[in-house]
Specification:
- By secondary structure, this protein is α/β, with parallel strands linked by helices.
- It contains 28 helices and 34 strands.
- The strands form ten sheets. It has a seven-stranded mixed β-sheet, sandwiched between helices. Strands 18, 19, 20, 21 and 22 form a five-stranded antiparallel β-sheet that branches. Strands 2-1-10-9 form a four-stranded mixed β-sheet, sandwiched between helices.
- α5 packs across α6 (172-188).
- The longest helix is centred in the C-terminal third of the chain and has 51 residues, at 698-748.
Length: 958
């Protein structure tokens, strides 16, 4: 349910069309088995229409893309025409895999039966009768899945329908078990809690299992997507590399077909250590000791679409998501009898949260289709709703527009949409004209206009924010254009007003949430005054991931800035447009959506591929109104008429001509993955003079991709080689320093001298290995006897502390007694004055506490790792109380400190070091605790909480 504004279709990159499906019945529907000549005739006709100035030979082996220059839109048109001509429904995979007429003939011989005939089938028994109980006490999404897997393990959670119409039933228990396997595989790969893992997978079982697998491993899922076209590759890589760098992602789980793209991303993102297919995560043993996710943990990062700038990672916790899902369920009046049908991509919040997580929480079945299945033939969406008796389904405005224009009359008989009670329209500008056209087109199929439900939401509010009363139907506010543009007043228009605007209501704020409209000073505005929409509620994000500047712009105390302009009328919200899209010209505030929609309706202009934006005129300093529109026309006379027509459309819609009209070739107008016009990118391309530049030829793009891929692999290989060389150098330096320094320390057995020599050697080691070393608040350390508590994450900890701690007073380390049984370690540690302590034998442990207290009584300072040991998983282990008892007996203070970076620099499950900054911070100084056991336990808990903050790791449960 992302941002919803007014009236523009805003179709996605591969979802537009230049007009209705004219001339589709080239060979005559139902003409019997197709012959190669029949098919070639259709291809030749479309190629001639697409490139009228170029005569091209068409054979069975001619490539649609390479030889005929048919882009993805033209291929969608070809599939539509072929399907109509031969009376068949081509599978969605034909769109992506059939690049020649010869390949297409195979699909014509093996196609599924028309699914429209299945519209009256009953709901499968596995999808009926969901439990009325809800996981009301769940704190996380993991809790929700486990709740259902425990109470109804064999119920169908998701019915996966692939491009061929085949079904797979996914039950709650199966999803949980698969996710647990992925979590074990991630743990075996060394993924630590809080690390980001990117998912570049198509809709399907692997995506679902891997998403929850990352959450079970306490990683942070980051959904991304592969490029839709070769022409998008460079922009895709640039944007996604920025996302992954911001997230500091350490691993990509990618489908095999996308591994080349993943390699290019890996070369651009230094933190990306590995690329794995889902199958490579299977078979690992369970990872014990991982703490369960908490409500305040980041559930995943939802990167904004970037329609007005660079994508930003919205931090969404489990608490945020569950609050939003519960509020949406209440607003939509979800019942156990509901069935959700969705083709929406799972890397977008409306498909991920609204469709999947919402269905999961409420225990209702989800029928999940791949997006390509809908794009290849929009009727499949409606047929799935009819077949499975869907009651809930959501889509952006362009999807409803596609259904109006591309669902054939022959597909309507038997299509029963009477079960559809909420047809949610969000994520992009909502067109009242599209709403009315959809209602009229499918009224004969049982669709009720009252089911149409415009909604409003944004990633910063998880997904949903405003919702109208279910079953009311659209409420359209018609306002006078002049006061709206000049003064921001939404005055109701009378019947005779010649210039009006129509805006759909998105209802009221969700339960437990609030919306207000403010002016530029932050003061509340009255109803029917346009201003900036702010919101608050339990779904609201705390900010953007690792982006404090953007977070400061977002947060207004308890309120969040939506970045949208809107007004209230009768308590309901009407979205007028993005703040950054607003064009100020001639004392009027203009929004681009009306003009973009009007321009897209002109013959010769690609529908949904018109961008209207402002560009600063460097000469006058004022904003210039620019129209950028895609067209396939090449004749200059025709293009001149198109410019005149666009200028006239501007006069008709906004009352003034454009300052500049730019005609560009197909796919020149940049869009987000959800189909929104990226107006900022359009403006930047216009100001660089590249907006109308023709795209690179496919064969040249393929050569460039191959070259970039070889360069990327070489870069990744060099990075790995450099890492190996660094590790080898580091161990060489360890050997060069440890042998003489360690040998001398072990030989002399003089702790004061040994500590000074060890400190000199440790500092030289860090310098020679190029390891950044820093200490904060070191001046807080007392001069006299005290206990210094430090977290333990690596064998590097003792070396780092030796280098960082001051030589005076010298610190004695406590070491596990196992080292005393090793002659070399006993001599070395003895030469440093270490105290060997017992971790397992309680009786000897009491004696060791007395020895520690005696040393403290003699004025020594002790370094203690209270966890007693470490392992590969992050998180503070439970503390041993010995150091606290010793401090109580000697009545000396306890100092808590934290080490950061050593776990990465030398992991517990590897002996190969990595270059990583090591930071040490001294925290709170606690007075000596009372000798009573209760006081000792309280001191232990307080110290552990303080250390967790200092070292940046969570406290594991006891």
């Amino acid at each position: 349910m992302n941002r919803t504004t007014v009236r523009a279709a805003g179709a996605a990159p591969a979802q537009n069309a230049d007009g209705p499906n004219a001339q589709a019945g080239d060979a005559g529907a139902g003409a019997g088995a197709p012959t190669p000549e029949d098919l070639l005739a259709i291809v030749r006709r479309l190629a001639g229409e697409t490139h009228p100035d170029q005569a091209r030979e068409v054979t069975l082996q001619t490539s649609f893309e390479r030889d005929l220059g048919l882009d993805s839109l033209a291929r969608v048109e070809l599939m539509q025409r072929v399907g109509q001509a031969f009376g068949v429904d081509l599978p969605a995979e034909a769109l992506s895999e059939a690049d020649t007429a010869h390949a297409l003939l195979r699909y014509l011989g093996h196609v599924p039966e028309n699914a429209a005939a299945a519209g009256t089938q009953q709901v499968p028994a596995q999808l009926a009768g969901a439990s009325a109980a809800l996981p009301a006490d769940a704190q996380t999404l993991v809790d929700v899945l486990e709740w259902h897997a425990t109470r109804q393990p064999d119920r169908v959670h998701i019915l996966l329908c692939d491009e061929r119409g085949q079904e797979r039933q996914l039950r709650y228990r199966e999803l949980l078990e698969a996710a647990q396997g992925v979590a074990a595989g991630l743990a075996a790969q060394g993924i630590q809690p809080g690390q980001a893992v990117a998912l570049m997978l198509p809709t399907g079982f692997d995506y679902l299992a891997c998403f929850f697998g990352v959450m079970l491993a306490r990683g942070i899922p980051v959904p991304i997507y592969p490029p839709a076209r070769m022409s998008q590759l460079e922009d895709h890589l640039r944007r996604h590399a920025g996302i992954l760098r911001n997230a500091a992602a350490v691993l990509i789980i990618a489908m095999v077909q996308a591994k080349d793209v993943a390699v290019l991303l890996q070369a651009a993102v230094p933190s990306l250590a590995r690329i794995l297919a889902p199958s490579e995560l299977a078979g690992a043993p369970p990872a014990p000791g991982r703490q369960r996710a908490l409500a305040e943990d980041i559930a995943f990062l939802q990167y904004t679409s970037g329609s007005t700038g660079d994508p930003k990672g919205v931090v969404l916790t489990h608490a945020n998501l569950l609050a939003n899902i519960r509020a949406l369920g209440q607003a939509a009046q979800v019942t156990p009898d509901d069935v959700f049908v969705s083709w929406l991509p799972l890397y977008h919040d409306m498909g991920l949260i609204g469709a999947w997580f919402g269905s999961l929480y409420h225990g209702i079945p989800l029928v999940l289709m791949p997006p390509l299945a809908f794009l290849a033939r929009p009727a499949r969406w409606l047929q799935a709703i009819a077949r499975y008796r869907g009651t809930l389904s959501a889509a952006p405005n362009f999807a409803y527009e596609l259904c109006v224009r591309h669902v054939r009359d022959t597909e309507l008989p038997g299509l029963d949409l009477s079960s559809w009670r909420l047809a949610l329209n969000g994520a992009e500008p909502v067109s009242p004209a599209t709403l009315e056209a959809f209602a009229a087109r499918f009224a004969g199929c049982g669709f009720r206009r009252q089911a149409l439900t415009p909604v409003y939401g944004l990633a910063e509010s998880s997904v949903g924010l405003a919702f109208p009363p279910p079953g009311r139907g659209p409420r359209i506010d018609v306002v006078r254009r002049a006061p709206f543009a000049s003064h921001g007043r939404a005055e109701p228009a009378s019947a005779g007003d010649p210039a009006t605007l129509a805006l759909p209501s998105c209802g009221r704020a969700l339960p437990g949430h609030a919306i207000r409209i403010v002016d530029e000073t932050g003061a509340d505005l009255p109803e029917r005054r346009v201003g900036r929409l702010e919101f608050r509620g339990p779904s609201a994000t705390a900010g953007y991931y690792r982006n404090p500047g953007a977070t400061r712009a977002l947060v207004r105390g308890a309120w969040r800035d939506s970045g949208d302009n809107a007004y209230l009328a009768d308590g309901e919200v009407y979205i007028t447009g993005r703040v950054k899209d607003l064009i100020k010209r001639g004392g009027r505030n203009l929004y681009p959506y009306d003009l973009e929609e009007a321009g897209g309706k002109l013959p010769g202009i690609r529908r949904g591929c018109v961008a209207v934006f402002a560009s600063l005129d460097p000469a006058s300093g004022s904003e210039r109104l620019v129209i950028l529109a895609e067209t396939r026309e090449r004749d200059e006379a025709v293009r001149a008429r198109l410019r005149q027509a666009l200028d006239q459309a501007a006069i008709d819609v906004i009352g003034m001509p454009a300052d500049d009209v730019v005609l560009a070739p197909p796919h020149s107008v940049p869009k987000t993955s959800s189909g929104k016009i990226r107006r900022l990118a359009c403006r930047q391309a216009y100001e660089r003079g590249t907006a109308a530049r023709a795209g690179v030829r496919p064969w040249l793009q393929a050569l460039r991709l191959a070259a970039r891929l070889r360069l990327a692999r070489a870069r990744v290989g060099l990075r790995r080689g450099a890492a190996w060389a660094y590790g080898a150098w580091a161990w060489t330096m360890v050997a060069a320093l440890a042998l003489p320094c360690g040998g001398l320390i072990a030989l002399l057995q003089r702790p004061r001298f040994g500590r000074r020599l060890a400190r000199w050697g440790a500092r030289l080691l860090f310098r020679l290995t190029g390891t950044p070393l820093s200490a904060t608040h070191i001046d807080r350390l007392p001069r006299g006897a005290h206990v210094l508590l430090v977290n333990h994450a690596s064998y590097l900890d003792a070396i780092a502390l030796t280098a960082l701690l001051p030589a005076v007073p010298g610190y004695a380390f406590t070491a596990k007694r196992e080292f005393e049984r090793q002659p070399a370690m006993r001599r070395l540690l003895g030469g440093l004055g270490a105290l060997f302590v017992e971790r397992l034998d309680a009786r000897r442990g009491v004696d060791d506490v007395k020895r520690m207290a005696a040393a403290l009584g003699h004025g020594d300072a002790l370094v203690v790792f209270p966890e007693g040991g470490f392992d590969a998983d992050s998180g503070l282990r439970p503390f041993h109380e010995g150091a606290f008892l010793a401090a109580a007996m000697a009545q000396v203070p306890i100092v808590v400190a934290g080490l950061r970076g050593t776990r990465t620099a030398l992991p517990a499950d590897s002996w190969w070091p990595h270059r990583c900054a090591v930071e040490f911070e001294v925290g709170q100084v606690f007075d000596a605790p009372s000798p009573e056991w209760g006081a000792t336990v309280s001191a232990c808990n307080a110290a552990r909480a303080a250390m967790s903050t200092l070292c940046g790791e969570f406290a594991r449960p006891a």
